From TrEMBL:
The keyword Signal applies. Keywords: Signal, Transport. It comes from the Bacteria. Belongs to the bacterial solute-binding protein 1 family. Residues 1-23 form the signal peptide. Pfam families: SBP_bac_1. This is Alpha-glucoside transport system substrate-binding protein. The keyword rRNA-binding does not apply. InterPro entries: Bact_solute-bd_prot1 (IPR050490), SBP (IPR006059). PROSITE patterns: PROKAR_LIPOPROTEIN (PS51257).
Length: 442
């Protein structure tokens, strides 16, 4: 459980561990560089996928680091293809010092290519103290910690319009069977139950992963995520069949399968929270709230709320996460200062900067929940941190990009095909195994 209150002594202890502080209680805590303004005159270059409001809010974190250390920072948005952009920068002799990596598979790729520096002892101590072990595991390759998870996503949240559910007389369900039953009740009231953004294949992988984790359990989830279990295992076809029950029910999906395949993720949120609602619920991560609030002016907790993705077939309710891990490149011109940035990012102080700005969850269990701006975000953050080691990282993000992260190919395309025609779960499982085998071999 995350503590709601942090005493001055505990706060100083955390800072001593994370920043190497020697003076506690002063009005200007000792900087991450080991002394006030210790990095003055130095510049730390950072690359990551973030743009728009995410980039703007992360810049606030970088500015706070600058204020503490005197270092300047320079952020470059890479777009979605981090691996290609960073690889080309390394080859061109212009490697950034720090990269915010959005996929476990990419972090592993960087480490295996020898691009990364192991994290400092100070950062490792912070991770051991402030994070559940699962986050250390996902940041490590062959037992060496390379990645610090700074920003997390909670991908086991079903977002809904309270008015729509109230009008249908429906309360948030706790089992998948009740979810479909509630969906039929909603649709009988004149509004489709679910909006699905099938044009973006990654949303479909998230549906599958939540069902699979709850139905098959964490051991099989871990084995499938690393391809130690083949996709032809009976558990995969079973989960696909469970998902197919929803996909083939035209009464439940706004516009049916065809419209779902022509709806991207923002469009799926619009169908629930936009000016002309077409559905009552949309499944996706906590970031749905940001779209509902920023694009459609919804008040989170009043006009938009969530319930946990329900348990499937008697299993435990799943907690699937994603996140962005900070890594330090060996070839960066100022990797030493980059490592000091990670020491700062490992502190609850750094996480609080973005938490206050919104659109952010931290896996750092020492971050005071009061740092978040609304009760719904606090509830989401509490759910993520309280899950501890039962959290499982997004399966497709753990896979090679050719299978789990490429538009029009691999898992994304095959699940889109399955949405179009969910009649043959075993056949789809066989196709997934064929694509996975090629990607993992490559």
């Amino acid at each position: 459980m995350m503590r709601r209150r942090t005493t001055l002594l505990a706060g100083c202890t955390a800072l001593v561990l994370a920043l190497g502080a020697t003076a506690c209680g002063s009005s200007d805590p000792v900087s991450a560089g080991g002394g006030a303004k210790a990095l003055a005159g130095q510049t730390v270059t950072v690359a990551g996928v973030w743009s728009g409001s995410e980039q703007k809010n992360f810049q606030k974190v970088l500015d706070a680091f600058s204020a503490k250390t005197g270092a300047k920072t320079q952020f470059t948005s890479t777009g979605d293809n981090v691996s290609t952009v960073v690889g080309s920068k390394i080859e061109g002799g212009n490697a950034p010092d720090v990269v915010m990596v959005p996929q476990v598979g990419v972090l592993q790729q960087f480490a295996q290519q020898g691009w990364l520096k192991p994290l400092s002892t100070t950062t490792q101590q912070s991770v051991d103290t402030n994070y559940a072990p699962v986050w250390k595991n996902y940041g490590s390759v062959d037992g060496t910690l390379y990645g610090l998870y700074f920003k997390a996503a909670h991908k086991s949240t079903v977002w809904y319009s309270p008015d729509a559910l109230d009008q249908a007389g429906v309360t948030p369900p706790t089992t998948y069977a009740d979810l479909l039953k509630a969906g039929h009740t909603v649709s009988d009231s004149g509004l489709a139950a679910f909006s699905i953004g099938g044009q973006d294949g990654w949303t479909l992988t998230d549906w599958f992963e939540n069902i699979y984790l709850s139905q098959a359990g964490p051991e099989k989830y871990d084995a499938l995520a690393t391809h130690k279990l083949k996709w032809t295992d009976a558990s995969v076809a079973k989960a696909l069949g469970t998902l197919g029950t929803l996909f083939k029910d035209k009464q439940l999906i706004a516009g049916g399968q065809k419209e779902a395949l022509n709806t991207d993720f923002p469009g799926s949120v619009e169908k629930v929270f936009g000016p002309k609602p077409q559905a009552a619920m949309v499944y996706e991560g906590d970031f749905v709230a940001g779209v509902a609030k920023d694009q459609f002016g919804k008040t989170i907790g009043t006009d938009a709320n969530f319930f946990p993705f329900p348990a499937v077939d008697g299993g435990k309710a799943p907690v699937v996460s994603g996140g962005d891990a900070a890594v330090v490149l060996k070839d960066g011109k100022n990797a030493k200062a980059g490592m000091k940035l990670l020491e700062y990012l490992a502190t609850p102080e750094a996480a609080a900067v973005w938490a206050k700005a919104g659109g952010f969850l931290s896996p750092n269990k020492e971050l005071d929940l009061a740092s978040y701006g609304d009760d719904v975000t606090r509830a989401t953050a509490k759910s993520l941190v309280s899950a501890g080691d039962s959290v499982r990282f997004d399966m497709s993000d753990q896979a090679p990009a050719a299978f789990g992260g490429t538009k029009g190919a691999g898992e994304w395309k095959l699940l889109q095909d399955f949405l179009r025609d969910p009649s043959d779960p075993k056949g789809t499982a066989a196709q997934l195994e064929n694509a996975a085998a090629k990607a993992y071999k490559g």
